[in-house]
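Hi both,

Apologies for the delay on this - the queue was longer than expected. I finally got the nicotinamide-adenine-dinucleotide-bound model through. Below you'll find the protein sequence and the ligand SMILES exactly as submitted, and right after that the structure tokens for the full complex including the ligand.
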Amino acid sequence: MAQEVRGVIAPGKNEPVRVETIVVPDPGPGEAVVRVQACGVCHTDLHYKQGGINDDFPFLLGHEAAGVVESVGDGVTDVAPGDFVILNWRAVCGKCRACLRGRPWYCFDTHNAKQRMTLTDGTELSPALGIGAFAEKTLVAAGQCTKVDPAVSPAVAGLLGCGVMAGIGAAINTGGVGRGDSVAVIGCGGVGDAAIAGAYLAGAAKVIAVDIDDRKLETARTMGATHTVNSRSSDPVEAIRELTGGFGADVVIEAVGRPETYRQAFYARDLAGTVVLVGVPTPEMKLELPLLDVFGRGGSLKSSWYGDCLPSRDFPLLIDLHLQGRLPLDKFVTETIQLDEVEKAFERMHQGDVLRSVVVL
Ligand SMILES: NC(=O)c1ccc[n+]([C@@H]2O[C@H](COP(=O)([O-])OP(=O)(O)OC[C@H]3O[C@@H](n4cnc5c(N)ncnc54)[C@H](O)[C@@H]3O)[C@@H](O)[C@H]2O)c1
Ligand SMILES: [Zn+2]
Ligand SMILES: [Zn+2]
């Protein structure tokens, strides 16, 4: 029997989001229905609402979530009703060219639920990142559920489902930050701060946080930043070079998603250093760089989708580190809110007032 639950939809481009009744089908083969306990508000949800991702309105928003598996469809063996899980948007297929080469974190054919959730009039919803978890329950592919230690609070666990994993992974997986490295992170929202926490965890000797908002820089220090730079009042490239003996950082992580901050990242890295772009640009943005600088500075320019994470490998590990007191995931939760407060949370995110607002159910 399909169930009716409450969920937050984005009805059309730039229209305010609202709570609607959502119809959640019973799980089909390979699918699971999850009772959502918490779901963080990510900048990508706002991108969806603004039409910056695609035009498949109406969207069922929310994708940084944790909850308990309620029911599973035929053939599901990895998770069972009652399991505490974090939802992921990288349910690897095991068959694409990346998976077959043993690099499943690049999987090019990830799974989502085959059935669609709908409004009560039958209108099909597009779940954000194939998840749609600003809802009391959601339907996903079973592979989108990763079991973790239930001792962790759901509000904290859910954040690993997107932004925090993207940031930690940008540093550790994509950037390959290691002991003794110098790292700079441009943009200290949830994603950038997670990159800072990741760099700290990996043993970086210097972690330089760059933002235009002093409040963000203060928080960045509590995540492990050793130095901070306000790029409104000083040139971040100069500042990063000064803090690194005149050379630039080994790894620079761009967590804003704009051409000007990417350019800063490009010039703030040392020769043969690495730039990691984890911020998501919009379609009209363009970048112009002297090709000779791209060549002459060597190193690598990488993008990081979801922190090149492998949920089955990374989620349980990071939750364990958190429970041992080695990764302050709880600091990312600025406030907990209700389903009908998502629009307000977007506003607060826009004002820079929060790292993460988390809907708890
Ligand atoms: N690659 C991925 O897999 C992935 C996953 C999740 C989110 N993201 C993207 O990461 C980006 C950051 O997400 P978030 O949730 O942390 O957003 P956020 O809005 O919480 O943080 C953005 C931060 O950048 C700062 N900022 C803005 N303009 C700046 C500038 N010119 N110079 C320096 N700092 C500046 C803001 O003050 C803020 O602290 C977004 O583009 C989001 O879509 C990427
Ligand atoms: Zn694959
Ligand atoms: Zn996200």
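Main takeaway for now: The chain has two domains: 3-161+328-360, 167-304.

I'll put the files on the shared drive as well.

H.
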